[in-house]
Amino acid sequence: MTADFQSTESDYISAHTAWLKRHPFSMLRSFWYPIAILVLMGMAAADAGADRKAAVIGVLIAVVYIIVSLLVIRWRWHRTFIKTAWMQQPASLTLDEQGVKLKGLNFENREDWKGIKTICETPGLFLFFMPDKRFYFLPKRGMSEMQIAEIRSIVSMNAQGSAKLAAASM
Questions:
Q1: Which residue range is the domain that position 118 belongs to?
Q2: Is residue 63 in some structural domain?
């Protein structure tokens, strides 16, 4: 089965967000320092004998740092999408008994089923995760229920890693 699609920035952001939901510790690792400050300052603010004003300021600084860092991550995703030429082009994703093939105007990548660690379905995407943190995504936008059911069927028959697919709607 081959599905043609055009990526949008919201698809790209949704795919990254889904990846982060599946790998929450990678996000926590990058924020260990402000989280540690937040916890320590929160404990200090709760302590009746401590200087509460300094502790509250520490908590606010840690929260602002985390918020700004999250905004920078989102901005980087935006810039990556804008600067990456192949994301602006029409592409196709082919699922068959051998694996998954992602093809665009200037590129072609193939991944065998045994090389796909996890497959999951979100309300707007199918995601194919590889062990090395790469992933392919296929937007459901514009697909019929029959096409979505066919993709679920192919994945169910061939997936060698874990597959978390939504139940077919009746």
A1: 2-6+89-164
A2: yes
Q: What pLDDT does residue 167 have?
A: 62
- Give the domain-ending residue among 67, 83, 99: 83
Q: pLDDT tier at 49 (50, 70, 90 boundaries)?
A: low
d(CA 121, CA 168): 11
Q: Are 92 and 2 in contact (CB under 8 A)?
A: yes
Q: Read off the DSSP letter of residue 52.
A: H
* Helix (H), strand (E), coil (C) string for 40-94: HHHHHHHCCCCCHHHHHHHHHHHHHHHHHHHHHHHHHHHHHHHHCHHHHCEEEEE
d(CA 48, CA 100) in angstroms, rounded, equals 59
In three-state secondary structure terms, 162 is strand
- Is 47 among the domain residues? yes
In-domain check, residue 102: yes
The pTM assigned to this predicted structure is 0.73
